[in-house]
């Protein structure tokens, strides 16, 4: 049930459609019924009004002629005529009576006025001088004559037996000594009514006591019966020749539902369209003449039109309302969709922004971490350089002590001897000693100069440095150890070879490499170190190498050789910083360093110094 209630068609729930449908049916039906009711009411009112008018017309017309036969019957000439015996006496009176009747008929505007004798023979008539004169006609079978003789007056609707013209007959008895001697009859035309009552979409009729239409605005319906004629009645009709011997046929029609006491719906032939029938509102009421009735048939098509209009109006209203509802729903949905889309977009945007912010934060953090690491590394490297320097200084200090102690001892001996030579007046010998002292002091000055070079703050500014000088200085530092260990030294550096480097740092590099080579050969039976330089393939480049006959670089060390704290030396002897610092310094010159083990044993370190134009890297 819940799911059913949720079903929507074009955005409107099913129950909404159902409610709208019910509402539509109710509204359309009510509107149509109301329109029909009102319309029929007004048609009935019109019909009723018509009936009033027709009844009044009939009454006045009948009233006008009603008295005429009575007046004529009292006329002396008329009474005399009927009193006279047929024959000469009557013939003498006849012209006067005929002329009188002619005058009366002319005054009243009727069809004819006759005088009828007791036997029912017309003996005088207003149309005495016309071809179709009634004189001589026997009307004894006519009900108006019989009624006049029996009750003093008679009325009758019939068709003239001579003329075939329909009309209303009024009759009055002519009394002779209180007894009826004959009758006077007046015949009146009904044509006037028929033409006066004719109105489009409407039929008006007078139906007589037999149920036969005697006055009708529809000519074809005249003398048709509205009720079935019984055989007995048929005989009477034939006897009275009321309808001049015409066969009275039933008018095919069908009574439908009743609308009110005086109105009902009925289906009658449509006189405007032969072969079709139509629904009418039938109104009837008793006509002034006893036994007759007046009837109007009114077209209900206008009411049908009203009904259809009301129906169409309600339908149109509902369609407009429905279309508007659909439009409004669609619009609401479109707006909702749009808002949803905007929300989704905003959400996606927010998400994107959040992601971007997140990533940015991550990147920023990573960047900061990297910066820190770089700073850390730089600091570490600086520290390493410094530590390396200290280590070298330590080695240098040891070397220097050794180096200085020896000349100092020599100077002491030489100066002691010089004093002895002076005391013995051996001046030339004393001078020779002093000269040797001076030379030794020069050598010491060189050593201390080296110290100064190392101590100076390194400010990397590569310059052209004499490579052979640099190598000579480094060798001087290790002179004692080289000599102690009896190392075979082979130095081949062409005179005037210059390389691009920072002099003190180059010094440090050479000391490191030479120190390592010394360490490597120290405990070997064969101890040799070869130092060599030559121009490389490209102009301005110099290849420099130090090779030793030592143990060679351990295979596990080789891949990590230039990394800090990589060492194979016992604790206290090696920090594993030398090559790390060396490689860094070499890079600082814009140069490169390689290490390898030689095929015939021992290690070889090669530095490729770049030309001046190639070096661009300047770093502390
Ligand atoms: P340390 O000398 O303090 O150990 P280095 O960075 O100078 O630090 O050297 C690292 C290591 O490289 C040494 O411990 C040694 O194993 C190896 N090494 C360096 N030079 C040589 C060489 N000439 N022959 C053999 N091994 C060497």
From TrEMBL:
> What catalytic activity is recorded?
ATP + protein L-histidine = ADP + protein N-phospho-L-histidine
Can you supply one Gene Ontology CC term for this chain's record? plasma membrane
Coarsely, its chief localization is membrane
Q: Where in the cell is it found?
A: Cell inner membrane
Q: Keywords in UniProt for this one? A: ATP-binding, Cell inner membrane, Cell membrane, Kinase, Membrane, Nucleotide-binding, Phosphoprotein, Transferase, Transmembrane, Transmembrane helix, Two-component regulatory system
Q: Which GO terms describe its molecular function?
A: ATP binding; phosphorelay sensor kinase activity
Does the record bear Magnesium in its keywords? no
Q: What is its EC number?
A: 2.7.13.3
Do you know which InterPro entries this protein is assigned to?
dCache_1 (IPR033479), HATPase_C_sf (IPR036890), HATPase_dom (IPR003594), His_kinase_dom (IPR005467), HisK_dim/P_dom (IPR003661), HisK_dim/P_sf (IPR036097), Sensor-like_sf (IPR029151), Sig_transdc_His_kin-like_C (IPR004358)
The family database entries (SUPFAM superfamilies) matched by this protein are listed as: ATPase domain of HSP90 chaperone/DNA topoisomerase II/histidine kinase (SSF55874), Homodimeric domain of signal transducing histidine kinase (SSF47384), Sensory domain-like (SSF103190)
Q: Which PANTHER family match?
A: C4-DICARBOXYLATE TRANSPORT SENSOR PROTEIN DCTB, SENSOR HISTIDINE KINASE
Name it.
C4-dicarboxylate transport sensor protein DctB
């Amino acid at each position: 049930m819940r799911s059913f209630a949720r079903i929507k068609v074009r955005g409107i729930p099913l129950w909404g459609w159902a409610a709208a449908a019910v509402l539509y049916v109710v509204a359309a039906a009510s509107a149509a019924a109301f329109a029909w009711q009102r319309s029929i009411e007004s048609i009935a009112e019109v019909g009723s009004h018509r009936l009033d008018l027709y009844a009044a017309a009939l009454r006045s017309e009948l009233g006008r002629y009603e008295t005429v036969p009575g007046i004529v019957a009292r006329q002396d000439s008329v009474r005399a005529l009927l009193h006279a015996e047929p024959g000469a006496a009557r013939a003498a009176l006849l012209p006067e009576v005929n002329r009188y009747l002619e005058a009366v008929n002319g005054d009243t505007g009727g069809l004819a006025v006759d005088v009828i004798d007791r036997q029912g023979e017309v003996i005088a008539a207003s149309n005495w001088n016309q071809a179709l004169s009634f004189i001589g006609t026997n009307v004894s079978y006519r009900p108006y004559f019989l009624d006049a003789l029996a009750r003093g007056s008679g009325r009758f609707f019939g068709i003239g037996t001579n003329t075939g013209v329909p009309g209303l007959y009024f009759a009055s008895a002519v009394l002779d000594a209180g007894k009826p001697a004959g009758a006077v009859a007046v015949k009146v035309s009904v044509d006037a009514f028929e033409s006066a009552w004719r109105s489009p979409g409407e039929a008006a009729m007078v139906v007589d006591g037999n149920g036969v239409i005697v006055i009708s605005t529809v000519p074809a319906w005249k003398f048709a019966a509205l009720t079935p004629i019984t055989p007995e009645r048929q005989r009477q009709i034939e006897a009275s020749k009321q309808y001049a011997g015409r066969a009275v046929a039933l008018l095919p029609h069908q009574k439908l539902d009743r609308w009110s006491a005086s109105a009902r719906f009925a289906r009658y032939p449509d006189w405007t369209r032969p072969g079709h029938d139509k629904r009418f509102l039938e109104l009837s009421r008793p006509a002034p003449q006893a036994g007759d009735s007046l009837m109007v048939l009114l077209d209900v098509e206008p009411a049908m039109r009203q009904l259809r209009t009301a129906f169409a109006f309600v339908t149109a209203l509902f369609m407009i309302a429905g279309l508007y509802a659909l439009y409004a729903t669609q619009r609401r949905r479109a707006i909702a969709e749009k808002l949803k889309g905007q929300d989704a977009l905003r959400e996606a945007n927010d998400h994107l922004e959040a992601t971007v912010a997140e990533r940015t934060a991550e990147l920023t953090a990573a960047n900061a971490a990297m910066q820190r690491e770089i700073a850390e590394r730089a600091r570490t490297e600086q520290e390493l350089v410094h530590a390396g320097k200290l280590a070298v200084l330590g080695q240098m200090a040891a070397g220097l002590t050794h180096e200085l102690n020896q000349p100092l001892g020599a100077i002491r001996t030489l100066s002691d001897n010089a004093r002895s030579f002076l005391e013995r007046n051996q001046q030339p010998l004393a001078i020779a000693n002093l000269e040797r002292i001076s030379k030794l002091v020069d050598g010491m000055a060189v050593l201390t100069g080296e110290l100064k070079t190392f101590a100076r703050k390194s400010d990397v500014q590569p310059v052209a440095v004499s490579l052979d000088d640099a190598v000579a200085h480094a060798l001087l530092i290790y002179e004692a150890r080289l000599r102690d260990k009896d190392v075979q030294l082979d130095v081949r550096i062409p005179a005037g070879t210059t390389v691009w480097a920072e002099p003190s740092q180059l010094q440090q590099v050479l000391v490191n490499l030479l120190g390592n080579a010394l360490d490597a050969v120290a405990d070997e039976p064969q101890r040799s170190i070869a130092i060599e330089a030559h121009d490389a393939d490209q102009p301005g480049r110099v290849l420099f190498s130090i090779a030793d006959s030592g143990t060679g670089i351990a295979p596990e060390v080789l891949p990590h050789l230039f990394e800090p704290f990589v060492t194979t030396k016992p604790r206290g002897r090696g920090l594993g910083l030398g090559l790390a610092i060396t490689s860094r310094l070499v890079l600082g010159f814009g140069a490169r360093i390689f290490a390898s083990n030689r095929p015939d044993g021992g290690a070889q370190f090669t530095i490729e110094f770049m030309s001046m134009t190639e070096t661009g890297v300047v770093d502390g």
